[in-house]
Amino acid sequence: MGLVAQPGSLADNGYNQSAAAGVAAAAAAAPSCFRTDTVASKTLDDAAADLKAYADRGDDVVIGVGQSLGDTLGDVAATHPNVRFIGVDAAPGPTHDQTWQTNGESLFFAEDQQGYLAGVLAALVSHNRNVGVVGGLLLVPQVESSVEGFLHGAAATLPGITIQYAYTTSFSAPAQGGGAAAAMIAKGADVIFSTGSATGNGALLAACKAGVMAIGSDTDQALSLPAAAPCLISSAMKNVAGAVTGALLRLAGGSFTPGFHTDDAASGGIVLAPGHDLAGDISAIDQDHLNTTLRGLADGSIQTAVVIDGKTP
Q: Most buried one in 33, 53, 123, 128, CB count within 10 A?
């Protein structure tokens, strides 16, 4: 099998590294089942060529990491019907998904639970009873689910809390994210959650510059964005490594279900990052509340109440 990471590095302390770790864990758990190879492409064009190269050489499984590879995964899958394709937080668009329901599987995460958990944490540690969330593109359902989850989680934890939110027009505009966060901070927000890739990174750094707390998303951003570590109380993470390991071990056991697979709190897919510089700012009582919330999301006793386009995520 071959894994193609999104442009960047396999040592990014983020999605790429997590996905590669998931491959390594699967190979360690079932060493007789896998011969693995991984590559971090330099550009999207290189990634397309790398995906095709793995499929052309006859690999049984080809993995692509990140939504930027979604359409390419679908295009390559359509020309290699006997290969199994896995998209990590990625799916081909409507005009690129000819065979995805046959030989492709998208690994997604319960973003509503991710945002809800971040909202609970923000409400617990806010001194001003005023928090904010900066999202990426509104038209991306995963982003909206995470933002809405944050709104619901904060409100459920501290009724009457002021919750500010903003969507941006790009995932690659740190200045835009920073500006949105700064505007919220100027209106009293003392905790900022971001869920918008590089744009969101700008929001986290703006929080640090203003001397307020921040909550990262998707990966442990104290590691992937060390410049923000001094103000990060935690990160609401997607367990990318676990999702990749699970998908590969299902394949090793002879099970492949094309389409969409969503990991959530029940499967360990949504977790909070361990404490770093600000670990001491979460009291034992607040930590108990967070643990209870995570258990409730896992067993279904806590519902996020998020509805996107008339549907629950």
A: 123
C-alpha span between 280 and 237 (Å, rounded) = 20
In angstroms, rounded to a whole number, what is the distance separating the alpha carbons of residues 38 and 16?
Answer: 10
Q: Which residues in 296-310 are b (16+ Cβ under 10 Å) and which e?
A: ebbeeebebebeeee
pTM to 2 decimal places: 0.92
- Name the token pair of 313: 């995520």
Backbone torsions φ then ψ of 302, nearest 5 degrees: -115, 125
Question: Which domains are assigned to the chain?
Answer: 2-109+240-267 (3.40.50.2300), 111-237+283-299 (3.40.50.2300)
How many other β-carbons are positioned within 10 Å of the β-carbon of residue 32? 6
- 139-184 pLDDT, tens digit per residue, is 788 899 999 999 999 999 999 999 999 999 988 899 999 999 999 9
Q: How many residues does the chain have?
A: 313
Using DSSP bridges, classify how beta strands 270-272 and 232-238 pair: parallel, antiparallel or unpaired.
antiparallel
Does 263 score more than 80 pLDDT?
yes
